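New to this. Explain the following:
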Amino acid sequence: MSTEGARRPLGVLPDSRGIAAPAIPPQTLAGPQSRRGPGWLTLITRRKTTALGALLMLLMLLTGTLAPLIGGDPGYMDVAGRLQAPSRAHWFGTDDVGRDVFSRVVYGARLSLLVGAAVVVFSFAVGVVCGLLAGYYRRLDNPVMRVMDGLMAFPAIVLAIALMAALGASVVNVIVAIGVVYSPRVARVVRGSVLVIRETSYVEAARALGAADLVLMARHVMPNCLSPVIVQASFVFAAAVLTEAALSFLGVGVPPYVPSWGVILAEGRLYIQQAPWLVIYPGVAIMLTIFGLNLFGDGLRDLLDPKIRGLTSERQQT
């Protein structure tokens, strides 16, 4: 052992030029990178607005799921008890033919959740496929997106009314009409993400190795564009619930015998001065549902953004 090595203090290592330099402790090398950030559930609960939106969504989901247990028969008529004010027997009062408003509002939540979820599935099945093809294949970009732009040129409610007039009043046709209305919006979001992802180095490397286009889109492109699509799902869900209520209110949505918030509002507007509870309770249900979905969508967008999520984690750790 040389004299320099014997005289070197502990924790000091020579660099490439032979000059002694202090050794970096392993815990310093690990630094903050080794600390795991808070989980998704923790981030959601720490944001009050996101937690409130998730709570409202959970409340509506439980209400719609447990509708047969807590709602009773929404079609039962007690003509002798028509237009009764809210009481212990009828929490939300009765309508003009003696039906329990609470039962109809509860079953309306079930229908709204069904329509919203089905519209999200339909619009994403169409929009994701169209957006992937338009963004990945340049020759398909112009024809596919011009069709999407043509659909988006119509106001959503006007296009939905036109489709319902052609298809007829039913729950399935409402889902198809609203799904067609919001599919172009999903397609544009997906196309914008695909245009960026297809030019990245890992996609170019996989293409150079001979990977097929379907493999590239399924394994590399689509998984990396899911974040904005997931965020878009919450807003499409909210828009679908609101559009379904508007169509039913105008008389071109679900049939009148189906409990829907829009149908309850349409029937109650004739008695708004005599029985205001006929429009207050379904209106509040629509408002809380849309409010919760928008709050949850805003929070989800922030959580899926790496930059905002990183800033949030650092602030919470400090």
In short: The mean pLDDT is 80. The beta strands are 12-14, 20-22. The radius of gyration is 28 Å. Residues 158 and 289 are 23 Å apart (CA to CA).
